[in-house]
Every structure is written in C-alpha cells, then in structure tokens.
Specification:
This protein has about 150 residues and is an alpha+beta fold. It is built from four helices and five strands; from the N terminus they run βααββααββ. It has a five-stranded antiparallel beta sheet with strand order 1-2-3-5-4, covered by helices on one side. Helix 1 packs antiparallel against helix 2 and helix 2 runs antiparallel to helix 4. The longest helix has 22 residues.
C-alpha cells in the first residue's frame, strides 16, 4: 500500500550561501530514501539552482524575505518545491533558446531552468503574482530489478 511518508519544510533567508542548507538536507533525505549517489548529486545541483534563482530573482536579495523549501517523500519519489515570496520577475514567458545562448547570441544567464530540467525527472515553474512563485521538481527512485 502506497502512502505519503512525510514532508520537511525549510525557511531560508534570502542570502546567497543558505542554498547549501537546502542542498545538504535534500542529500540526507535522498540517502535515507535510498537514492544512488549520482542522483543525490543531481538533486543537490537542481535545488541549488532553484534556491539561487529564488534568492536573486524572486526575492531580489531582500534578506527580510524568505525562500521556502519543502521536501515531500513518497515511497517512490521525492518532490521538492522552492518558493520565493518576493516581487521579482517571474519565470520567463519566452523559453530561452539554448543554441543562441551557446553561440553567445543571447546572454548566458537563464541556463538554470535548462539545467534543472536535465537533472530531475519532472520540473515545472508556477508564478502567482500575489504570493511569489515556485519551482517544483520531482526525482524518482530507480526501479529495483528484482
């Protein structure tokens, strides 16, 4: 029978460096859940990108605002939400062009969303002008081959 295990919630200051707390917490949860080390590294990188984006862009480095991180565990996956509460610009309406960025026709910033999508099994970005925005990432446990 499948059931939700539990959730962990973090409330981080909008100061660069605090993303490491989210990374280390996610790594610990991933190890407890049985993720292989390479997937834990992917998870840490994706969470760091999402947290830095929330700190810099969503909350505009305003230390009075927080970045919320929720890790929700199920028997076969870990869902992570990274929420900003600031007035910053919301996620791009226009999807960046990876080829133009690689050829330096567009600025190299904005690669974080590509990176996150490449590292996790599922990613989405939700903007709510009244309450901030969040990145939702899901990483699934590998199927055991028994």
């Amino acid at each position: 029978m499948k059931h939700a295990f539990s959730s962990i919630e973090l409330s981080l200051p909008s100061r660069l460096g605090f993303e490491k707390i989210a990374m280390n917490t996610a790594a610990s949860v991933g190890r407890i859940m049985g993720f292989p080390e390479d997937r834990i590294e992917d998870l840490k990188t994706a969470i760091a990108e999402a947290c830095i984006n929330a700190i810099e862009h969503g909350n505009r480095l305003d230390e009075k605002l927080v970045v919320g991180v929720t890790l929700s565990m199920t028997p076969d996956a870990l869902e992570v939400r990274v929420l900003d509460t600031g007035p910053g610009p919301r996620f791009p309406v226009e999807v960046p062009d990876i080829d133009k960025k690689m050829n330096e026709e567009q600025q190299s910033r904005g690669m974080g969303m590509f990176l996150i999508e490449a590292l996790v099994d599922e990613a989405e970005w939700v903007s709510t002008p009244s309450s901030g925005s969040y990145a939702r990432m899901v990483i699934r446990l590998p199927k055991s081959e028994e």
